[in-house]
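User: As part of a screening pipeline, I want to sanity-check one entry by hand. Below is the sequence and the SMILES for zinc ion. Please return the complex as structure tokens so I can compare it with the automated output.
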Amino acid sequence: MDPLKQRCCESASAGDNGGVTSGATSRVTRNDVAAGARGTSGDSELSGASYDASGSPGANLPALRGHNAALVLGLLRAAGERGVSRLELAAATGLTPQAVSKITARLRADGLADEAGRRASTGGKPPTVLRLVPGARHAIGLHLERDELTAVLADLAGDPVAVRRAPLAFEDGADRVLTTVEREVAALRDGAGGPPVLGVGVACPGPLDHTAGVLHRVTGAPQWDGFPLRDALADRLGLPVVLDKDTNAAALGLAQGIRVRGTGEGVGADEHTGTEEAGGADDGRGLPPGSGSFAYLHLGTGLGAGLVLGGGLYRGRRTGAGEFGHQVVQLDGPECGCGKRGCIEALCLTAVVRGDLAEAARLLGVGAANLVELLDIDRVLLGGRTVLDHPEGFADGVARVLADHARIRGGSAVPVMLAPGGARAVADGAAQLVLAPLFGPRHPALAASREAVG
Ligand SMILES: [Zn+2]
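Assistant: Here is the complex for your manual check:
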């Protein structure tokens, strides 16, 4: 029994990734977005009775059903523009060529894959190459911060097609926040010409119950305690919704190794209300495959961590893992919004407010070193608005503490880097809450065969 494996959610079996809120006979497959999603009758292909009945977001999309289809879809995504032949798919998945042909026929019938010419012959008949059609379906990622909403429309490859930002007052409570979200999601979809949307991933400050889709006592916004945000949003939006912590969404996106095109920052739009057209060349900022175990530390208006252990997102049994900011590092220290004293979040944010960034970075480094000591992770990634305001200062400050830690303990220091994706890392990752389960699990053997294929 490996408890970590049990709770790794990237593979998204229903038990790992939360429950489906309705449906009598959950025919749960590994590619269930439904995992923690709740659908309603609406205009999504994944919503309505068939979604609820099967527990699968792909209920109306036969091509998205089943573990093997997810594996094939994952290989198509990994191969990118170059594409992959049916024989290569068979070799990489261990499926028979006939089974692969059946799956790819269904994917093509649903418009998810198409033929991309023929590969140069190495003797026999040149094989036909298939590739993913990224624009065939989309997912929406929402990042609800205490004072701002970021909404991303991502294609199947995880690339952003459109981005919007709007002011948000999280402490104003549910009704006003839901109204803002509804308006921005509608504008996002309209602005992109109303493409088919599979579902909505919502990332917000923790703590929360990912499985039930319910918020807990968010520091500074206690009125949200117990609010069923997932179901309320599913009702408003008419789409399946998955709820997770901001830190988990970002970590999932990073674990997927998504490659974000363009910076998406301030491109042709007002900072707070406009629509940004994401574009530009692929800058390859995604993490390399097989990045193993890492911690994503998010310092914005709060402080939290997303943990990827052995390649999978670790949420914990009650999906409460990663409350990094509320570890006590100073007994009887200053009061924290959570009710305790001496939390690292309170100390760190206080240092930021008084302009002592070196001290804030040092505190973040101490927390990072504690994580390294506990979990033996491979790297530390930094993100969140406060870090991005002073990226070098935080990266250097944390690196210094980790170097000191390594010197005392022996061995080399765990590397620190800014998380790829910049200010959009959480919103992009939120879209992955919907997309990742469609593409099958990533385990080392498959990753290796993908590289052989790609
Ligand atoms: Zn606290």
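Points to compare against the pipeline: The first strand starts at residue 37 and ends at 38. The domain at 64-132 is CATH 1.10.10.10 (Arc Repressor Mutant, subunit A).
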